[in-house]
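hiii so um. not sure if this is the right channel but i have a protein structure encoded as tokens and i wanna go backwards to a sequence. like what aa goes where. can anyone help
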């Protein structure tokens, strides 16, 4: 799924609007095909400005994670400890998000992305471990 190429305006907007629709939107470089998070005006691989929005299928694996025991702000106090995961989506880009359902995941665990509405931050993605079916 694609939409217009953009080179001006807020590069985070497609991501935020995608979350509101419960879709994880990322940028695909039309020059080298590299996938990356929204928020950059140029391709981090080749420097091209020809970025196109695409919607992730919402599946990936845990590339890294950490268990957060001390809240960085009062807002996070009610949920510590929680797991913060660096997820590599199947399209090839990485995104940091909360992993729910497990404090002790393993690198490589498959995850599915879903969304939760938060009063302070709007709609945000989170990851949940999934059982391997293949
Ligand atoms: Zn590129």
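sure thing!! here u go:
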């Amino acid at each position: 799924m694609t939409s217009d190429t953009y080179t001006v305006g807020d590069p985070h907007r497609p991501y935020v609007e995608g979350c509101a629709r419960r879709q994880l939107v990322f940028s695909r470089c039309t020059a080298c095909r590299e996938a990356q998070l929204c928020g950059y005006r140029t391709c981090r691989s080749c420097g091209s400005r020809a970025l196109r929005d695409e919607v992730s299928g919402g599946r990936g694996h845990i590339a890294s994670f950490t268990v957060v025991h001390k809240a960085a702000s009062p807002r996070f106090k009610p949920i510590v400890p929680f797991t913060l995961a660096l997820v590599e989506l199947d399209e090839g880009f990485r995104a940091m998000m909360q992993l729910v359902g497990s404090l002790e995941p393993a690198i490589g665990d498959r995850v599915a992305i879903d969304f939760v509405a938060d009063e302070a931050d709007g709609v945000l993605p989170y990851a949940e471990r999934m059982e391997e079916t293949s």
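oh and The longest helix spans residues 13-20.
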